[in-house]
Amino acid sequence: MKQMHRKTIGLFCGIAAALVLLVCAGAWYYVQSGALMERAAGTIASTLTDQLGTETQVGSMKITSLHDATLRDIAIYDKQAQCIVRAPEAQVHLRLLSAFQLKDNPASAIETVTVTGAEATVERRDDGTCNIADIKPN
Fold this sequence. Notes:
By secondary structure, the protein is of the alpha+beta class. The protein has helices at residues 2-32, 34-52, and strands spanning 56-63, 68-77, 83-94, 110-116, 119-120. Strand 2 and strand 3 (83-94) form a beta hairpin. It is rod-shaped, with a radius of gyration of 22 Å. The relative contact order is 0.12.
């Protein structure tokens, strides 16, 4: 009787472990799916637009680990819709525990951003203002 009870517990534990692995694999697949990445890139661009006070676009995003993401084809525009900063890539290091506050404050989940290969076009307008002055971080 005892041996039968142990086999049942072992079988139950094996099935439970397999289900946990299946759920984790499904969650990882969903996180890596194109639809989620596209929506996340749009959310990041919207948050950057709010934080910088001017239009920002993010071409694509890829989550590389639980703490890191890569943004590609980043562009920041001035108030006249001219691109003033363009970067091919940025590495974003996330605060994992801040992810619970994403709905209220998405920027709180970002610990650091490392931009590589950025090119800026700084111009003085006819009225004497500089296009880069359109970026006003909150």
